[in-house]
Write a structure and sequence with these properties.
Single alpha-helices involved in coiled-coils or other helix-helix interfaces; 155 residues; 2 domains; 14% strand; two-stranded antiparallel ribbon
Length: 155
């Protein structure tokens, strides 16, 4: 029986703040065992899928906030937090969303903070776009910046 499965009714979510060891496993962040009395024959109600996603989104927010705080002191710990947030999102079915994905490197899975470990440039060749370069692995991301131009033209 897997400790990290949400389908097990004997398992309940555990908040990240209760974890004292920062390098704990994903299963500890996702779940904790509940002791059940052997005389109790009723099964506890299972969590709904939307409730699981809501809990996962809260934990993803907490982990990404911790990753941002730990980036300057310990970059490897920050990278671990981002990897955990990504795995929680994958397991629970919660989406990271474009505003979160924009500052996570696809190649090395590190949190990208402009001026610290990434470079942000606006380029005009072949259409205006924003280029974010990870300074750890050298990979680049390009985002179109055409919407602002269209808004100026309409005025």
């Amino acid at each position: 029986m897997s400790v990290g499965s949400f389908s097990n009714p004997e398992v309940r979510p555990l908040h990240v703040e209760t974890c004292t060891n920062h390098r704990c496993s994903l299963d500890v962040l996702l779940t904790a065992r509940i002791g059940r009395a052997s005389t109790d024959r009723t099964l506890p109600r299972q969590k709904s899928n939307s409730n699981i996603r809501h809990i996962a989104e809260e934990r993803i927010d907490i982990l990404l906030r911790l990753a941002k705080d730990a980036l300057r002191a310990d970059p490897s710990l920050s990278k671990r937090y981002v990897e955990l947030a990504h795995r929680i999102a994958m397991r629970s079915g919660a989406r990271l969303g474009p505003e979160r994905k924009q500052f996570i490197c696809k190649n090395c899975k590190s949190l990208l903070v402009p001026g610290v470990n990434c470079r942000v440039r606006v380029r005009a060749e072949q259409g205006t776009h924003v280029v974010v370069t990870c300074l750890e692995c050298g990979s680049t991301k390009r985002y179109p910046a055409v919407k602002e131009k269209r808004l100026k033209r309409r005025r």
